[in-house]
Amino acid sequence: MITTRFAPSPTGYLHIGGLRTALFSYLWAKHNSGKFVLRIEDTDRSRNNEDATKAIIEAFKWVGLEHDGEITYQSKRDEIYKKYIDRLLQEGRAYRCYMSKDELDAMREAQTQAKERPRYDGRYRDFDGIPPEGIEPVIRIKAPTSGTITVDDGIKGKIEFNVDDILDDFIIARSDGTPTYNFVVAIDDALMGINSVIRGDDHLSNTPKQIVVYEALGFALPKFYHVPMIHNENGKKLSKRDGATDVMMYKEMGYLPEALLNFLVRLGWSHGDQEIFSFDEMLALFNPKDINKSASIYNTEKLDWLNAHYIKNSSNDTLAKLLEDYDLLLSSHDKREILLDAIKDRSKTLVDMASQIKEILDTPDSYDEKAVKKAFKGEAKDILKDFKQKIESSQELHLPSDYHHMLERVVDEREIGFGKIGQPLRVALVGKMGGPGIDTIMSVIGKDETVARIDNILATV
RNA sequence: GGCCCCUUCGUCUAGCGGUUAGGAUCCAUGGUUUUCAUCCAUGUUACAGGAGUUCAAUUCUCCUAGGGGUCACCA
Question: What is the tens place of the pLDDT at every residue in A190-210?
Answer without folding.
Answer: 999 999 999 999 999 999 999
